[in-house]
Specification:
Elements (H helix, E strand, L loop, with lengths): L1 H21 L4 E6 L2 E6 H56 L3 H20 L7 H18 L3 H13 L8 H17 L3 H9 L3 H4 L2 H13 L3 H13 L5 H17 L4 H9 L3 H4 L2 H13 L4 H15 L9 H13 L6 H13 L4 H13 L3 H11 L6 H18 L2 H15 L1
């Protein structure tokens, strides 16, 4: 369509020129004494147009001729820029392919090309980014080659060339993150944490930085810092819910196990979130540690109350078997000074689930603590043959033997001791 319109316009111009020139009878007379020259007006117009075209062509030709050195210099710089970009891309490809020595050579070639362009006073687009990336690629390859000196030299050059603030601040943050990862690869957790601490606040809260901080803190045995980092990662959904719960639980167990006195342990417990206190493993570990450190049995039972409520739920136990057995064992060891509410809880649980030998056993041990000998003997007699756990069954038979000895029933005591010995084999 456009070509047709141009063709119509050309025909229109041709028709207009023909109409104007065909009936134009005008002349132009030039007087050059003693001569007189008469020229047709059409010829004069043609000469003027031709002269203008010739003059324009001469000026354009002269300008092009004078511009040739500039264009040649520009072409040479363009070739150098292309060589620099090609070297940078080659370094990235070689690094991904695991050919680290070639990657470092290509990155150093890109750095050399960039330096040559700077010496030539050429304005390279994104020069700072290209130079920094080239140094980081060379440092990455040197790290893979275990050449720490060359790696640190390239890293420092890259950091020196990027300001802490500005449009290229992300390059500096990325270089610091990579240096922290290199320190972790070498097992230097202290250096990794130091480099992560140098990051701005916003960059330090990114998922990648938090993952590195978590790994460094765990490696450096900074459990409290690792726990705070794991909580942040869980809030950012950096892990699946199951993985986040597992990591937080393992850190909590490590933190609790590292407590040296009851005051420190209680401070740790108060700093836990409600959901963390309700974790069965965490609550039982804290209770056991408190008992080991000489804490009050009442405090131990108070920490175990949320876990007990899960065990005492009607119907099927809400706790796995190993956790339920551990809870029974911890409560059994901390029944000193058992108060009425706890005794009522235990009795209610055993009555609501009379077929659960574990609850019957714990109720019997609570009765022993309160010196309710008859009821304890009855419950132990029901629970001992049904207990599946060897440790609880042996303990139940030993308690029955001791009760029989108190009554002076030697035959029953010997039979109970025999059963306890057989279970303990």
């Amino acid at each position: 369509m456009r070509a047709a319109l141009w063709l119509l316009a050309l025909f229109g111009v041709a028709v207009a020129v023909a109409l104007f020139a065909g009936n134009n009878q005008g002349t132009v007379t030039l007087f050059w004494p003693p001569y007189r020259v008469d020229l047709s007006l059409n010829l004069v117009l043609m000469l003027l147009v031709g002269g203008f075209a010739l003059l324009y062509a001469a000026l354009r030709g002269t300008a092009t001729l004078l511009e040739l050195p500039v264009r040649a210099r520009r072409w040479r710089l363009m070739q150098k820029e292309r060589a620099m970009h090609a070297a940078l891309l080659d370094a990235m490809a070689q690094l991904l392919a695991g050919r680290f020595l070639r990657a470092r050579r290509a990155a150093e070639a890109a750095i050399a090309q960039e330096s040559a362009l700077v010496d030539a006073r050429s304005a390279v687009p994104h020069r700072r980014r290209l130079r920094t990336l080239s140094h980081m690629l060379a440092a990455e390859a040197s790290h893979a080659l275990q050449d720490g000196a060359t790696r640190d030299a390239h890293l420092q050059t890259a950091l020196d060339g990027v300001p802490e603030r500005g449009a290229d601040a992300e390059l500096r943050e990325g270089a610091q993150l990579r240096s922290a990862r290199w320190a972790l690869d070498e097992g230097d957790a202290a250096s990794a944490l130091e480099r992560l601490s140098a990051l701005p606040v916003g960059a330090a809260r990114r998922t990648l930085a938090l993952r590195a901080r978590l790994k460094a803190a765990r490696l450096d045995r900074r459990t409290a810092e690792a726990l705070d980092t794991a909580r942040l990662l869980a809030k950012h959904h950096a892990f699946s819910p199951a993985a986040a719960a597992s990591i937080v639980r393992s850190l909590l167990l490590e933190l609790i196990e590292g407590a040296h006195d009851t005051a420190q342990l209680q401070s740790i417990w108060q700093g836990l979130e409600p959901a963390e206190r309700a974790m069965p493993d965490v609550a039982m570990q804290a209770a056991q540690r408190l008992a080991v450190l000489g804490g009050e049995p009442a405090q131990v039972r108070a920490w175990l109350l949320p876990v007990w409520e899960r065990l005492a739920e009607p119907g099927a136990s809400a706790l796995p078997e190993h956790q339920a057995l551990r809870l029974i064992a911890v409560l059994q060891d901390n029944l000193d000074g058992l108060d009425g509410p706890w005794l009522a809880r235990i009795e209610a649980a055993s009555q609501s689930r009379p077929r659960d030998a574990r609850l019957q056993y714990l109720s019997a041990m609570a009765c022993l603590q309160r010196e309710l000998w008859g009821k304890a003997r009855q419950l132990l007699g029901q629970a001992a043959p049904q207990l599946a756990d060897p440790a609880l069954r042996a303990s139940a038979w030993r308690a029955l033997a001791q009760l029989a000895e108190q009554r002076g029933d030697t035959d029953e005591a010997l039979q109970a001791w025999k059963q306890a010995a057989q279970v303990g084999r």
